[in-house]
């Protein structure tokens, strides 16, 4: 299979961009539909989904590590090795997913208390987490399969599946929220069923694409094969990435929990902001995702200089898109927000924060492709260390000092996040410019190919 033709930046970007954009539009429709239940329901979905993001990073060790190793092996012309990595990653995801799903289903009340959800939202949150959390195995499998398929250069398949999954989800929301076709109005309970059901359908389709993603069709017997050295290679790349993702996501849960103590209106405003902000950087994030695949492939092929330059091409286009989108959001934010809520206090908070987004979102875009590119060349430990130290000291600590202690509420939260993104961006930029890992690692990869060494 010739993957080189599929590894151009824009060839990788456009399906990812369409997928993210349509997911955003459908996710916005999802929030809009849930808001017809109540602002409380929106707050429940917001804090629960933030919690689920923290849970899913448990699988980042597998999906992220496997994705980079697969791209590197394909770049080095070792497709059979990449195929083995893909099979092992899927089996491991299912095994861990079963354990996590059962734990979330049984221990729901413990997690609701941990999130410091306002008392009036307690019952709704518990119900939503129990159902959607019980389906974590499906969510994790969808994530892993999508990552593996994209790493082969096929970004169109996951795009089409994601679009179909979200359309099914919206249809399910419509049926259960509004009681369409004579069915009962199940509200947030119905939304949770729709979420899990649509993901299950996506899993079935992705599994079919996954088995056909390599030159040799993946057989059922392949799922019984485990190669410890390969697993160690995935862990070496994936473990720091998992810790880094966990640090970021758990820090966001902690921040969300602190926002929850500010009251239901502040929590609802943060949830609406999450939806609106997705518009600012989703296209830019597609460049960050694409450049990770491309850099890993080029790095595996020993093309060090091209790997280095490709980052800056992605960074330029990503920043351009993010800045334009953020300006549009700032200009039309009040009009857009009016479709979600008529609460004047929530609207006032959101509009004030959108001004800070003019600084925050470009800084986020600065960070994303730089961090992804460093991960793609195996410099995952540096990204992890910078992330853990700066996120918790600046983002979380700043949220407490500025948001709660100083009484600035969400404005304090966003100022802390701006400082966090700026410091991390500066540090990873310096690391990439230094190119400390590229010469040594690329030379080693070239030596391996020269002697025809097989893993």
Automatic annotation (TrEMBL):
Keywords: Cell membrane, Membrane, Transmembrane, Transmembrane helix, Transport
Recorded topology in the membrane: Multi-pass membrane protein
Pfam family, one: MatE
Compartments where found: Cell membrane
TM regions (residue ranges): 7-26, 51-70, 90-108, 128-148, 160-181, 187-210, 230-259, 279-302, 314-337, 343-361, 382-402, 408-427
Domain of life: Bacteria
InterPro entries, alphabetized: MATE_fam, MdtK-like, YsiQ
Name of the protein in question: MATE family efflux transporter
